[in-house]
Design goal:
Layout (H helix, E strand, L loop, with lengths): L1 H5 L1 H11 L1 H13 L4 E5 L2 H18 L3 E3 L3 H4 L10 E7 L5 H12 L3 E6 L5 H5 L2 E4 L12 H18 L2 H8 L1 H9 L4 H7 L4 E6 L2 H17 L2 E6 L16 E5 L6 H13 L3 E5 L7 E3 L9 H19 L18
Parallel strand pairs: 1-2, 1-3, 3-4, 4-5, 6-7, 6-8, 8-9, 9-10
Helix pairs in contact: 2-8, 2-10, 3-8, 4-8, 4-12, 8-9, 10-14, 11-14, 12-14
């Protein structure tokens, strides 16, 4: 896990160059024939990347984006009308049966399939109308790291091209260097605070919710720590009842319209005695985790990179092997 996560900067650097022409062609096609909606299809870490895609596409393009439920096709054998829609399928392996069933059904229902997949010879790659390779290389750790960051980078590259957003495209070109710097940041305070923890919330909003989801999964996978991802906007709708003195929260906030609200929430939670770890802003009473400033669509990639190094260290501190989580396999064959 440690070695593969450390490779993310070079993966993104190579990916941006290798996919430039593919992205330009796909983006021109999408501008010439705009889809009526985008439907994402993914599981696990890839589904967290899909959350990032939804926020980025809807905020930058104003285009309805929704997550498909693979069971609709694989279990219920229903076929929603997807004519005129783009299905954005995201996968490291491209081999999960229910994902393939959902994508096959979507294609039969008239959708245009865009696959972001690491395994270019996978069944999912063969189903795609447009294939966007992640170029993450072999990923042996059960816990996906570099392939997740590669998925986020590919989504940013697609949206930057699609919208002709020169500022976003320029920011993405800086991402490899920023990822290298994010990898070196000291998040050991989080290890100290979470080594003895039993439960925690991981909080984000907007683009940052995708990182909260990913962090919660990794804490469960590698650290055997029960973690629940919650939107900062949803915390007050019930989950807040669990937050008392000493309750740990890991919070992420990128520098966009959501930042002030998340920072204010962090201040309130710390004031009631919660153990708040905050990345991306400052808040009274919170333990601040250092971050690299960047474009708000790039900052989530940097949060993930710093988090992966911390999660690996936390797993070891809790007496576990981050590369061998129990009961899990690299390819999850959900039926």
């Amino acid at each position: 896990m440690y070695r593969e996560a450390a490779q993310a900067p070079e993966v993104v650097r190579q990916q941006l160059q290798a996919n430039a022409e593919r992205m330009a062609r796909l983006s021109e096609r999408l501008r010439q024939a705009p889809p009526r909606a985008v439907v994402t299809c993914a599981r696990g870490s890839s589904d967290h990347a899909a959350t990032f895609a939804r926020y980025l596409i809807e905020t930058r393009l104003g285009l309805l984006t929704s997550s498909a439920a693979p069971s609709v096709s694989s279990v219920y054998e229903a076929q929603p009308d997807l004519a005129g829609a783009v299905v954005l399928a995201i996968s490291q392996s491209g081999a999960s049966p229910d994902l393939l069933a959902a994508v096959s059904s979507a294609r039969a229902a008239g959708a245009h399939i865009v696959a972001l997949v690491n395994a270019q010879d996978s069944p999912l790659a063969q189903l795609a109308d447009d294939l966007i390779p992640l170029h993450a290389g072999t990923e042996r750790s059960v816990a996906a790291t570099k392939s997740y960051i590669a998925s986020l980078a590919a989504i940013v590259q697609l949206v930057a091209n699609w919208t002709r957003d020169a500022q976003l495209a320029a920011a993405l070109q800086q991402a490899p260097e920023l990822l290298e710097r994010a990898w070196q940041l000291d998040w050991s305070a989080a290890v100290t605070h979470l080594t003895a923890a039993n439960n925690l919330y991981v909080i984000g909003r907007g683009l940052g919710l995708a990182i909260a989801q990913e962090a919660a999964l990794k804490l469960k996978e590698t650290c055997r720590l029960h973690a629940e991802a919650v939107s900062a906007a949803e915390l007050r709708h019930g989950p807040m009842a669990l937050v008392g003195a000493g309750f740990p929260l890991l919070m992420f906030t990128q520098n966009d319209e959501s930042r002030a609200g998340v920072a204010q929430l962090a201040t309130e939670l710390a004031a009631r005695g919660a153990d708040v770890l905050l990345a991306g802003a400052a808040a009274a009473g919170a333990t601040i985790l250092p971050t690299e400033g960047a474009h708000p669509a790039i900052e989530p990639l940097l949060f993930a990179q710093s988090f992966y190094r911390m999660a690996n260290a936390l797993s070891l501190a809790r007496g576990h092997d981050p590369d061998r989580p129990p009961h899990l396999h690299k390819v999850t064959e959900t039926l």
